[in-house]
Protein: ATPase, P-type (Transporting), HAD superfamily, subfamily IC
Amino acid sequence: MNVPKTSFVASGSIPEISKDWHTLNVEESLAILTSDFNQGLTAKQIEQRKQAFGTNELKESGGRSALVILWEQFTNIMLVMLIAVAIVSAVLDFRQGTFPKDAVAIFAIVIVNGILGYLQESRAEKALAALKRLSAPQVRVIRQGKTTEIPAKDLVPGDIMLLEAGVQIAADGRLLEAQNLQVRESTLTGEAEAVLKQADVILPHDSSLGDRINLVFQGTEVVLGRAKVIVTKTGMDTEIGHIAAMIQSVETEPTPLQQRMTQLGNVLVSSSLGLVAIVVIGGVLRTGWQFFEQLLEVSLSMAVAVVPEGLPAVVTVTLAIGTQKMVRRHALIRKLPAVETLGSVTTICSDKTGTLTQNKMVVQKVETGSYHFNVTGEGYNPVGEFLSKQHQQLQTEPEVQQLMLACVACNDALLQQKKTPKQTEWHILGDPTEGALLALAGKAGIFKENLDSKMPRMGEFPFSSERKRMSVIVDNGDGTSSYSMFTKGSPELILECCDRILLKDQLVPITAEQRQHILTENDGMASNGLRVLGFAYKPLSSVPDAEDQENTERELVWLGLIGMLDAPRPEVKEAVKRCRSAGIRPVMITGDHQLTAMAIASELGIASPYEQVLTGQRLQAMSDLELEEAVDQVSVYARVSPEHKLRIVKALQKRGKFVAMTGDGVNDAPALKQADIGIAMGITGTDVSKEASDMILLDDNFATIVAATEEGRVVYDNIRRFIKYILGSNIGEVLTIAAAPLIGLGGVPLSPLQILWMNLVTDGLPALALAVEPAEPNVMKRPPYSPRESIFARGLGLYMVRIGIIFAILAIALMVWAYNHAQADGNPERWKTMVFTTLCLAQMGHALAIRSDTQLTIQINPFSNPYVLGAVTLTTILQLLLIYVEPLRNFFNTHWLSPTELGICVGFSLLMFVWIEFEKIVLRLLKKRG
Structure:
């Protein structure tokens, strides 16, 4: 036994905090904490312990301030380059005595992009605030021999705390005494069923958190009974405190999209600076220093051209559109980048209760003296069949009817229906196990509201942990003053009290063979993960005294066994299949028993029936390296604690997996935050789990995760599509601008303001339209793309360079013709407007052609994404307004083009569309030959 040591100070004893209070008895706990069962702590002890342990509150570690987050947005390498460009541009404009409109426009774009980034990152973590809300404001304690009520924050180790039904427990403690104490610990263990606590047990050192029935924990709730508890841990030393510490210790990693955008920025800026250096050095060598200022203007335009100023806004809007689509599929995204991140998921770690299952106990099997049958039906709906190969119409058999009577009579729950316009929903008030029994009896036509009036309850022997059963006495309602006692509980213990068995409608002595058969059936049901209850009854001539339970609960008549299970959601099996076909591995992590976990996992296809189950007890003994080696083989984890969930997620990530983790309890919060995608339950989830998550399932359904993953893949495909579109165009712009001084043309073909127009409007609007392109047919029939793949992977980089060069060749050819034409025509600046217009209109053809990599544009239904047509039409009109509306023409420094000149621009632009379509035909032919 690991007994904690006690340290002493000059003025009295202050105990050390131990992790092993469940291994100690009541006397040892009181002695170590130097407290008194009846008197509690003295005033002197309380003051000393306040000094030593502090207040019973959760402490918050420092995080990034709002100003730091805002400042970090402007350290982005692309924005830094734009800021430098804006400053140089402003200096040049002031030297020339002109208003620095280029610099103002660039600064405006920088500020907008910085604000967009800040809004995405500035969601402060509120998980700790939600944890603090779990603390009870007041608590009843015994201090100096008197019962008093104090603020929960003033509790110290050694305080004697009094609990009763409805109380939220304010600190961790060891039970001193308990009367039928039941505590709901779902916030810590994730399991909804209340735990029956016992003060007089001593548990092994390696008992899991859910099995420590002699301890109570902060943040859990008393649902039944009373207890006296000695406080053992307060504040950050409690189990809730450990979770708070874990939440704050988890470092948030940038999402794949954020990493790819950073990589993209680095490549673009470095390439741009290299190109600027070539142009400036080449220009100086060719023309001398007298044209340095003109070369500097060219460099500024190139720098603006290489940065896709509209890309952050397009990405943000695309992710926002994705969030709206996901809401329609019952998934609420809390952090925008999580939309795309979902598409990279390789492993989904799911809780069992409520996510894979209905969170409703459903009877699966029934065994009576003569019959063994299965039961169909869903949830608490009292509609289903009793299925047996040997027997028909089992509902009307006397021994089945008697068992159904026992299910209803020996029951404190209520089965109710709620009618909606679409359907009638059944739900229960009371214990889920008792609700399952009412639904079972309803399938045989026996309902509680009818039975209570015909056979009123006359007495009862309540459930106790020692007897592990409950009994009720009812009036038979036949006018003969006869009564029946119905008993339910532990099958083994009830069977010991039986000397007869009901066969058909006869009471016969129970044989040793029948007893053995019942015990074997009980073990068989339990091994399949079912929760099994035994039922018996006894005819009575009078209502026994409340104190006479021991004599009354003897010589019972055995009725049968009932096995129930929190049944799987019907749609999850198909969702698991879709996961498998999409290259995503589902994993179950639950606090439930391993047999129950494996029964559900094998039925859903998550694991085979003979696969290894890793329990929390075994996991605790494993090193991190051993766990990393095991996670690839294990698909089911049972009886796990919060630390275990966090370790499992980390181990999977070490193996290169991209992990989505579901959870609803406080215990899940650290793992939710650690996971690449944390998914909280919207219905059953705690505020803590929701605040720690990236996504919330509004219907608590595993199938919704799969639907959201599909949407994430579509979003990523579309982001890649419009990045190809935007950057292919930008490379063409940069090469065109760079070529102008190198081939001896006077001036810069595009001003920074015109480039901003192209990057924000003629690039931005079609890019937004491409963001809502429908899913490809194979989107969920391929493995996920590696979350660590480069943004330029799978041919995207080559495409951008290739298309950029084609853009540039067309634009340079047009530029040379237009320059010579403008010189001869007496308007030497008009060529710049022709280059500007050609580049803008060529992008419209690019937008139409890029919708598919393989299908020709004529083969694609234009109305499958009408936004592309709308964006191309609107952008073309806006571009023409810049040429033919005088105020806009003056602001953007464009010139009037004749119909012939405009037609030439359109003709050169169409060549871009023709080239991309030609590429598709060539690729299709090469694929056929290959």
Notes: Residues 1-12 have pLDDT under 50 and may be disordered. Residues 65-122 form one domain. The longest strand covers residues 172-184.
